[in-house]
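Standup notes
- DV: blocked on the single-chain target, sequence here:
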Amino acid sequence: MPVVENLPDLSHWKTVQEFSITQAALLLAGIDPYDYANGLEGVRSTRHERWKMAWGISEGIISAIRRGVLTPVQCLSVRWIGDEWNGCEEFYEIKPTDRKSDISKDKTIITRDSLFMWVENERVDFVRKPSPDKIISFSCETISDQNVIDVVPEKNDVGILLLPKYEHQSEGLEFVQDAIKELWSTYDEDDPQTAPTKKEVIDYLTERGAGKNMAEAVNLVLRPSCLQGIGRRIKKSKG
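- DV (later): unblocked, structure below
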């Protein structure tokens, strides 16, 4: 992994939990997105020393989304509306697996946790800060602990992530959390009929980009054994 001495200060990005593909690619390449209004085009036009790395990472993120190993919060494409002179761009939502439409790098959103899960699992090469060195002052006296000065007092690993990961996450856990929020939050233990049906769960998750096996596994994990085969029923109209 490249170690760069003159990296910009990116500490203002540490609280950001969601990124566009463009922002994620620039940050992993050690470039502050705020410094380039035109994003990836901007770093390429100015011939930034790591512009190729940023573009390569952005293409890798899109490939990961297409393969289903990186799940976006929102996947958007862009199309031109109107004629050549009076038209405008329109962004619209697509399925991550829809290869008929290009994924927008500026509007498609991914989370910090899913991004770093992809980085770890795929061993993505990204820029790191150098490890801080210890400065030792020498004198005629015996060197003691007081003579050793840490440039950064807290413990530092060999590689310091530009965007540190705070907790474990995975694609499967994201689908579990999503299904709990959207389908199981209104479930009442005293009324089994308030539970979503297996079909509702699987249909919802596949629409969000999950594979059939993943959707079935999430449904099995979330559904108590006493509710197997039980779920909301369509209300019959009174006639």
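- Follow-up: The longest helix spans residues 51-67.
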